Amino acid sequence: MLYFLCLILFCVGLYGVLRKRNLVKMIIGLGIMEYAMNLFFVLLGYRFDGRAPIYAKDQEILNMVDPLPQALVLTSIVIGLGVTALVISIAVRIYEKYGTFDITKIKRLKG
Questions:
Q1: CA dist., res. 56 & res. 70, Å (int)
Q2: SS3 of 54, please?
Q3: If one looks up domain 2-47+63-109 in CATH, what number appears?
Q4: pTM for this predicted structure
Q5: What is the pLDDT of residues 43-85, one digit of tens each?
Q6: Domain spans of the chain?
Q7: CB-side neighbour CA atoms (13 Å) of 60
């Protein structure tokens, strides 16, 4: 069920990227897609009633949460922040040049 909710969240972001004509809405859709993928990866490593992956002497290693997806998501968050900053800076430059965020008007200006 949780994986299906991740899919729905990803589809909402995909709708925002593909169907909206405003650059700001497209950037928000891209962020939603990124958050959906991060949530999906965290859910892959999650275990119900799991414990932290910390090893100690004289302890059984049972039902530990997988730390690898968590590390990948942390890396993905940093990369996503850089990509989002780059896309926002490009959108600001486009707004400074054309005076609009609407991509249909930007296509018509051609200059």
A1: 21
A2: coil
A3: 1.10.287.3510
A4: 0.83
A5: 988 877 777 777 777 777 777 788 888 899 999 999 999 999 9
A6: 2-47+63-109
A7: 3
